[in-house]
Predict the 3D structure of the following.
Amino acid sequence: MILYNAFRHPKKLRISVLMSVGLDEESCCFIMDQRRDQLTQWVRDRLQANVSQTHLPTSLEMVSGDASFRRYFRARFDAADNQSVTVIAVDAPPDKENNHSFVDVAKTLGAFGVRVPEVYAVDFEQGFMLLSDLGDSVLLPMLTEANVAEYYQQALSGLLPIQRSCFEKPLPPYDRSLLMTEMALFSDWLLERHLGLVLTEADRFMLKHAYSYLAGEALAQPQVTVHRDYHSRNLMCLSDGALGVIDFQDAVHGPITYDAVSLLKDCYCKWPAAQVREWALGFYELLKTEPEHAGVIGDIDAEQYMQWFNLMAAQRHLKAAGIFARLCYRDGKQSYLDDVPRTLSYLVEETRGVDTLANLHGFLMDVVVPALINRQPSANEFFQ
């Protein structure tokens, strides 16, 4: 358990976690390297039936970590025809990651035509996986004003098979309890932990009322398969021009607007509001005209759809702002604080003019935004 907990943090903090139980720094580094060594040997064992001993990978190349506890490595080797081949080895501690869900969702989405990594091998006990390699071309740095519309149209079309996918074992519901728990992260981690605000009973009552309203609006929508983190950092530009999809293990059965919100109101980039509305309405029309979706969207009109879209965005950005603060203070990933101002600016826009959220909007403008600018002065550019 100590070993797994150590990998929750960047290297210096992981060493601190291990040293806190009496290990010296040399021993700490040994334990961390040992986990990687174990994964390397496991990969070699999985490949040896199809790869000659002399061509087996002797080391793993770090690809990335992410906002979770997973780490990704690339293994390179030569196949029988001397062609260079790469696969992705995943270190996903089983007490921190839902690896069974990852495998189940990957297989189902793949069967519905979604370009997800193929699972070649998995060891649930150790928390190791071997996947096909979708490359390094993440969508986010590829986006420009000239190409974003084309990429987003492709990504929105790619949502259709995700939404209509059916699972042998039903996905967890995106129910009121989960929606409320997510929004509470905003209060606990952003307002209190990051900004140091002392919330009054009136503040807490107002926030709970706003959260409850947003949860109700989410539950009123048609419910479909939801990726739950469908955005530019989880879409890969593949060599054949298609978009690959990653980080889908937290999929749920939930609101039809959720994934479109994640993409079009991305916490990592922002486009003009009028353009976002046009894209959102385009997806609505796609849902209306797609034969397999027409029965899901039913007779819902564009105005209702856009209301749900906007309110779903408010729910997501409350959650995301809280998660970014939690990633900093709990997991030692301070860079995520850079995404808080953009995320909060979305929230200000989404609560403006909504009668039921008027008190929340006032609280954001009068209390939260000034506190954020005081804490992170560079945030001021998002609220001019």
